[in-house]
Each structure stands twice: as structure tokens, then as C-alpha cells.
Amino acid sequence: MSKTHYQYDVIVIGAGHAGTEAALTSARMGAKTALLTMNCDTIGQLSCNPAIGGVAKGQIVREIDALGGEMGKLIDATGIQFRMLNSGKGPAMWSPRAQADKKAYQFLMKLRVEEQENLTIRQEMVESLIIEGTPVPEGAPQPEPEDCPRITGVLVRGGAEYRAQAVIITTGTFLQAIMHTGEAKTKGGRAGEGTTGTMSDSFRELGFQLERFKTGTPARLNGRTIDYSQLEIQPGDENPQPFSFMTEKIEQEQIPCWLTATNQHVHDVIKANLHRAPMYSGQISSTGPRYCPSVEDKVVRFADKSSHQIFLEPEGRNTLEIYCNGISTSLPRDVQDEMVRSIAGLENAEIMRYGYAVEYDFAPPTQLFATLETKRVGGLYFAGQINGTTGYEEAAGQGLIAGVNAVLKIANKEPFILDRSQAYLGVLIDDLVTKGVDEPYRMFTSRAEYRLLLRQDNADRRLTPIGQQLGLADAERCAQFQQYETQIQTALTLLAKLRHQGNSLEEWLRRPEIEWPQLCEFSSELANVEMSERAKQQVQIEVKYSGYVKRQQQDIERQKKSLSLRIPVTFDYRAVPQLRNEAKDKFSRVKPADIAQAGRISGITPADLAILTLYLHEPG
Ligand code: FAD
């Protein structure tokens, strides 16, 4: 019997946050794309907390938006509460965060992928990969890309084949997934859903190494059964700031969140039942996110604390369901009931969904190039939680980068790699592919050495021109950006030219106490310039922080200079005693023109580059 075949340019497996951005990106760049997912009703689902953004993650959302991605627009349209975190600190720390109406967010993403030209969405369970060439066995040395097998498609349950030159895997927490609530174990990547075991087998057959991580989620409550009079209210910002550079204003009404806390009795209940917690009974041995611990973990690790804060977050406008942020747990149901009922305001609360932990396979990301293409199989890309990350934003960002690179690869174009000084997305991917992960990876501002440059406010100035070159940023975005940039340049020129009491307005603006309205009092010419509020704010940040920014730019220049260090064609790598034999072989064969090219050779480590650079400066 002949098999059903479908032919596409790019296939994306999984329609979570990585998959949807990857598929939209690929289709928008003109590739005929298929998005295959286990269940069309869960496209864009927020598996855990109904919120987008937060510290460092908010910056990522703005970067995705600046490049032409979807996440920022979706949360602007479906957010129920918006807050700019760290607004009391310097602008490099400002981070937008918003509660989403969970279902509205998911349905809007479903609509966006449905509306997208060049994109076919199909409910399919993908079971294995189809390749051309001989797989490289696990543990065998990494061959050169031209000697690796190549992806040609995937096989789905029921036997149909989808063929393409590039395949992007974004299967999230679903590979060999097991959920735990106390002693109870169920197969599945998310409550109420299934798992996929055959995909893991298929990866292993191709020589990929897989490891296991775990993550967890708290109980959800019925809001009707909560006593709000005992809780502290947490309203949104008075002047909510959008995520997307294309959203003028957040128009919708905001809903408050609520605060409560655990207490000594809750901690005693948890301690008395630790032997029943899968993390402590030995039922789970894989690593979870250290910075996002379960409540049982918090009680053990911070034994001197008698209380931990809990944010009660509404899951939407048309539901009473409440997410209990801060008490993620996999304790048994009876313990969760007792725990919840011992918390102020929750004495009569009914749990609608119990908390659980999920263990799943991930593929250590050192098996990837910085394009997110795998080193073992040409044309095969991994993005999202499968790479050992956690978080919607980290997943979405990887999806976009994988989508771009898949399309560039099949068009035989240069790959797209963001530098660490250009974007948090550059930091994220560089960390993943060079350092790997030993716990679920989430972004922090501290991971970015150039964080003064990588602000949420300037993501469009850093990335929209790149989005335009890639064909991702649409005409409306590009026109709006051009107008904004012109306003900024006009203002900067005027500030340098106009004077007040002997000093330029630029010098005045550098003073901490001087803001835009005062400058306008100093000069009617400036006051009459047509400028958006956002452009004014950008100019102020630019001028006030120019000293720090300049210093970081000089650091980057210095680093770039070392990367452009030329290597003579006749250079004898074998004469560098400290170099590893593998590095000597590869350098001798490739004969890189400069250090930057040397660094792109597969298998070359930062240490090899450091030795080579030193030797070029000081031979012998
Ligand atoms: P997902 O959003 O998981 O999407 C995977 C997609 O792949 C789904 O659409 C699925 O149907 C599809 N799929 C899987 N296998 C196949 C197949 N074989 N064929 C076809 N389709 C397939 N993040 C945090 O930041 N903080 C947290 O506290 C947190 N807790 C979490 C708790 C739980 C219980 C879970 C499940 C997740 C949690 N996360 C948390 C992680 C967050 O949900 C993920 O980081 C994010 O959703 C990853 O996005 P993704 O696109 O990689 O995968």
C-alpha cells in the first residue's frame, strides 16, 4: 500500500510558544510551512502561569516583537493586568510583565497561525524522523557537517509522511513525560494530555543524547470560594505599557491580583509529609528549576523562614479560576487540600486542578549550532523546552531564530546569529550552545554582560532593521520605526545645537534632576518639535546614560577587534604546543582567515580560541 506524502519546505513539530513563532516566521519569510501538533485546541497554550514577561523575559518579548514576532502583540490584546517591574531602578532593569487571559491568548494565537498565508496547520502525532544518510552513533566523534545525514521529513501516527528540507522540533515537556502528584504517576506532558515516547527513540537512533529535567505547577482554585476580604490587593499599573512596539495603548480594563502567604502551620504540614513528595521520596530524581522551586523545596531550603508570599492570579476574564503563584507542588492531593485550607483567605477554597510535577526528556543544547540546527542531522532544528530551557519567552525566542535559520538554510543563504551584545536572544542561544545546561535554563539580566545596551526600551532600535532585512518586520512596522528614528535623530541634533545659560541642552539633560519639560522651557524651538512620548523618553535615556553606554560599546569594539585578528595562511597550528590535537587538525584543514572564522569551526572551544589568540600576539 502506498503511503500518503505531503511536501513542504519547512515542517514545525509542536504548536507551543516555540512552534507557533517558528511556523509564523518561516511562513512570513516565504517558505511553504506545515505546523504539525498533537492537538489543535492547545495551540499557544500557557502550560503553567498565565503571565508573559517579567525580569529579563519582558526584554525577550520586546526583542521578539522588534524582529516581527507575535508574542508581544498577543499579550497586549489579551492581557488583564500590566506592570512594569523594577521601574524604580535604572532603565536597564525595567521589565514589562502582564497577566494574560489564558484562553483568549491561546485562541488569538490559534487565529494568527490560521490566518497566516503559506502555513498549513494539521493535528498530527509525529512519531519519528526520516533521514537520508547514515546516522552518527551516540558517543562517536562529531563528523563535519557535509558528512552528516540530512533530514528529509517526519512520519506521523497512522503512517502518513511529511517531507521537507528543514524540520524544527518544538515538543516542549512532552518527550517521555511523566506527571507526579504524590505517589500517583501518570503519563503526559501536561495535565489532561498525552506524551510521545517514540520521538525520543527516534532521536536516540540518530545518536542524540537525551537527559531528564522536571518542572512543576501549583494548584488552581475556584475564585468563588476565596475570601478576598482577607487578601491584599495588587492592582496593575495606572498607565499600562504595551509590549509590542506596534501597540499604541492598552485600552482594556485591568483586573487586580491578590496577595496572601504561607505560614508556620502550612510549613509544618509540608514537613510532616515530605516523605510523600516525589522529589524527596526518590520517585523523581531529575533536576528542576532552582530559581523557581516548589513550595516543599522552599520549606526545606529556607528552613528559617516562616512565610512565603503567594500571588493569586486570575486565569482570565470569563473564568473564576485562580492560579496560586508561589506554591508549585507535587505533594499528594490530601496534603494540597490541607495546605491550601491553612492559608489566610483560602480557608474554604476549593481546588479545581491539583498541582503536579512533570519529568521529561530534553536534548542537551551543546548538540546544536548557534543557528539551532543540530550538529548530527543537517536541516534538523531544535527550539524551546526541548533544549533544556524553561519559560514561554525563552521558547518563543528560540522558535523565531530557528524559523529564520531554517528558511535561510534552504535558500542557501548566510545563517542568522545574534551576538551577545545585540540581544538577550543572542545571550540565550550562545549560553545554550556553548555552555549547555545543568538545570532548566531561564533568562536573567545578570546573564547579559552588555545589559545596559540590551534594554526593553530600545529593542526596536537594536533589532527592527534586522527584522526588515529578513523580511519579517512588515511595511507598517518599518514605516513607523523610521518615523520614530527620525524624531530621535532630530531631537539629538537639536539638543547638541541649542544652548541655555552657556551649556548645550544635551549637557543640561545629563543632569539627573533635568527632564524633558524643563528643556522645553529653556527652548521654544525644542518645545515645537513634533515628537511622540516614547521618542522623548528614548532620547532622555540615551543622553542620561550615554557615559555607561559608551563604555560598553568600547568593550564590544575591543572584543570585535580581537575577533578580526587575521591569521596568516602559512600559520603552523601544529607549532602551538598548548592546542588540543583536534583543534590543530581542524584549524590546519580549514585555515581560517581570522579568529571569528576559527571560532565558527565545529568542535572548537573558547579555550582553543584564547590559546590561538595569545599565540598570534606572542608567538612562542
Ligand atoms: P510547549 O509549550 O510545551 O509546546 C509543545 C507542543 O508540542 C505542544 O503543542 C504539544 O502538543 C506539541 N507536541 C509534543 N509532542 C508532539 C508530537 N510528537 N507530535 C506533534 N506535536 C507534539 N515555565 C516557566 O517559565 N515557569 C514555570 O514555573 C513553569 N512551570 C511549568 C509547569 C508545567 C507543569 C509545565 C508543563 C510547564 C511549565 N513551564 C514553566 C514551562 C513552559 O510551559 C514552557 O517553557 C513552554 O511552554 C515551552 O514552550 P515550548 O514551545 O517549548 O513547548
From TrEMBL:
Gene3D superfamilies hit by this protein: FAD/NAD(P)-binding domain, GidA associated domain, C-terminal subdomain, tRNA uridine 5-carboxymethylaminomethyl modification enzyme MnmG/GidA
Record domain tRNA uridine 5-carboxymethylaminomethyl modification enzyme C-terminal subdomain: where: 543-614
Cofactor(s) needed: FAD
Entry binding sites for NAD(+): 288-302
GO terms assigned for molecular function: flavin adenine dinucleotide binding
The entry's keywords: Cytoplasm, FAD, Flavoprotein, NAD, tRNA processing
Residues that hold FAD according to the record: 14-19, 126, 196, 385
One Pfam family per UniProt: GIDA_C_1st
GO terms (BP aspect): tRNA methylation; tRNA wobble uridine modification
Chief place of localization: cytoplasm
Purpose of the protein: NAD-binding protein involved in the addition of a carboxymethylaminomethyl (cmnm) group at the wobble position (U34) of certain tRNAs, forming tRNA-cmnm(5)s(2)U34.
NCBIfam families: mnmG_gidA
HAMAP family (UniProt xref): MnmG_GidA
Protein name: tRNA uridine 5-carboxymethylaminomethyl modification enzyme MnmG
Organism the protein comes from: Thalassoglobus polymorphus
